[in-house]
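The data are quoted verbatim for completeness:
=====
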Amino acid sequence: MSTPAKPRKQVILGAYVGGVNHHTIWSDPAAGSQIAFSTFRHVATTAERGRFDFFFLAEGLALRERQGRIFDQDIVGRPDTLPVLAALAAVTEHLGLVGTLNATFNEPYELARQLASLDHLSGGRAGWNVVTSFDAFTGRNFRRGGFLAREQRYERAGEFLAAARQLWDSWPADAIAADRDGGAFLRHPDAGSFAFSGEQFDIQGRFTTPRGPQGHPVILQAGVSPQGRDFAAAGADAIFSPYRTLAEAQPFYRDIQARATRLGRPPGSVKVLPSASFVLGDTEAEAVERHRDIARRQVTGQTAQILLESVWNRDLSGYDPDGPLPDIDPDPAGPRVIQGRAVLHQDPFATVAEWRELAAARGYSLRDLAIHVFGRTEFVGTPAQVADRIDAFVQQDGSDGFILGSHLVPSGLDEFVDTVVPLLQERGSLRAEYEGHTLRDNLGIPTPAAHTPVAGGPAQIWLSPPST
């Protein structure tokens, strides 16, 4: 008897706007504002036209600095995430609205209420990428959480998410009923009552916002260490993946699914989503040449210097960006040269040694290395080639989809929607129309039952890496 064919997976797509950084060519004449609502509206409505699952907005709570001065690779001015998402709810109908929101500097009651309100306003399309703070530099703006020890930040964030879930569950799904005169009354007089006590929070009262259309907003997290993978498999609806090649991504995907299954969750409960970019051309050669030009404009000599300074923690301005790597060792114990950027490499000596081997093997300059190691998953080719590669990556369980960003804001996504999306739809890998009403519906993630604890309990919570 032949084995039944594996069902074709639907490709999950998110549209990413992260502000000015080395992925965005802010100096391009066609680039628009990074903070105007028209930019967010254009990206979101384009994504909805392409039947994407959600719009994703990153967050920056401090302007990044180099040796005490703001550097021009960053955005000067960052709007608050929630008002932008709430405004986008009014100009979209189906698109999920996901924001990065910090658990270190907010309070459970306040943020749970804001997210529940967004879920109501959008008809069930809210999502939350949970992050913690990572440095006292950012904490100076708040004079509180940035000075927590690392383990306390995670303790606080774990309790924060557990408390938020209790608040969202404090209203039974059938708490409100209509009366004959068109009004409403409470079926449950104790609706909204809550009490939560832990090491970080001791709160009680009555939550003002009824249970949202999704029950809980969709929760996105990340975790690469063994402990992080376990915690994310227990508590996340979707997890970010840092792996750019199929060979690296497949073991991570299998591991996350196996951990989630061992914790009692149904197969496919945790969606795995790497970030990615794309470069298109009429021919593959044209796309490759265009990609090379874009990469060199994304990572200027100064940008390459700053990216490597985040690991070396030394002033590298005296080194030629198109010359060899610095011949000095990192100085992790010294004053931070770069402030406000997440430290993604925990062992700078091992990282630099690995980079020197890579540069020697491939003949990389300082700038070439920065382009290689600080890039995202990249799909380069004709629209048909890019559609093939995205689909193959998902069908072969490298991921469940991608969070796509473009080098050009806000119009860069248009080309993908106009040329690649129809090809994915033709092969049945991307919806032609939205079928669900909520973000959970469209992602294929079940709505949590009211008053049902999350698998693993509140202790098994893991957080995304900090926002940058």
Remarks:
- Residues 440 and 446 are 6 Å apart (CA to CA).
- Confidence is low (pLDDT under 50) at residues 452-468.
- Residues 12-175+190-283+377-443 form a domain with the TIM Barrel fold (CATH 3.20.20.30).
- The first helix runs from residue 37 to 49.
